[in-house]
Amino acid sequence: MSENPSVPGQRRNIMMRNDWWATGWEHVLPRQGLPLTMLIGTASQPGCTGSLDDVLREVFDGHWAMIGGDLEGALSFRWSDEEWDHEEEPEGREAYEARHWEKFGAMLTAAGFPVPRTVRDLSELYLAWGLAGREEGPEGTRWSMPDTLPLPEELLPLDAEATELIARTRWALHVHPLVNNLTGHLIDRLGAPKEILTSLDRLAAATGQKVGDVRHALLELVKSDDARVYRGEEPAESASLEAHQRFRLVMDWDHFHEARVWVAGDTDDGT
């Protein structure tokens, strides 16, 4: 599969696109959608030729538990070895799978797509949806992925539950870096004050963010009960503040830190 076949047993690092999470496909597809995306991303590396089976053999010696073994592995909506929480999900694994398959099948049928049963079937849907490309050339099969992935709502009639989950995921991915930027300024530069008198435009200038981004960060802090916003002695709505209006930002740092889990060895880039 490699353009340098003289290197026996050559290995490639498994690849994953950073923008996958923001697309929301994880809330639509069976669990194997994530490892399949990683496999196709790996096959799409420059200089890589061959089928997905070839990539699987090169990287995982032909068997990857995360994908269900190989491309003939059956799709599912929960990992088979995942411990089941009967209190949180009393319906049980079989009922859970049946419910999700019914929704998934109805959605695909309504959009005119076949319902996949194996990872290989799902890879063919990736091609139909434009999540991946495949071309045959003199050197063999070449896989690719577009610069911008199509979104599930552009291709499928999503139900209210999936739509809400995707919206929440995208909001979290958008707002969390903004919150980190703002709270980093408050902690590192201002010494974590219990309260400050400020304005949106002042915070924007101090953090290098747009006023709208600071507003989003404040909204999230208030929603999470990490902060309160006042105009004088009266509570104020962050969403309605003018950029220049002064307000008191009152932080609950105990709650802020209790709500966050810190792992030894974490770095700013998440590695």
Write the layout of secondary structure elements.
Blueprint: H1 20-23, H2 33-43, H3 52-60, H4 93-110, H5 119-129, E1 133-137, E2 140-144, H6 152-155, H7 160-189, E3 195-198, H8 200-207, H9 211-223, E4 227-231, E5 234-235, E6 247-251, H10 253-258
Antiparallel strand pairs: 1-2, 3-6, 4-5, 4-6
Task: Give me a quick take on this structure.
This protein has 271 residues and is of the alpha+beta class.
Characteristics:
271 residues, 10 helices, disordered C terminus, 10% strand, two-stranded antiparallel sheet
Q: C-alpha Rg, in Å?
A: 24 Å
Task: Report strand order across the widest sheet.
Answer: 3-6-4-5
If you average the pLDDT, what whole number results? 88
Helix content: 40-55%
Q: Helix count, per DSSP? A: 10
Report how far the terminal alpha carbons are from each other.
30 Å
Indicate the low-confidence ranges by residue numbers. 1-10, 262-271
Shape: elongated
Largest sheet composition: 4 strands, antiparallel
Description of the structure:
- The chain is α+β, with helices and mostly antiparallel strands.
- It has helices spanning about 20-25, 35-45, 50-60, 95-110, 120-130, 150-155, 160-190, 200-205, 210-225, 255-260, and strands at about 135, 140-145, 195-200, 225-230, 235, 245-250.
- Strand 4 (about 225-230) and strand 5 (about 235) form a beta hairpin.
- It is elongated and about 70 Å long.
- The strands form two sheets. Strands 3-6-4-5 form a four-stranded antiparallel β-sheet. Strands 1-2 form a two-stranded antiparallel ribbon.
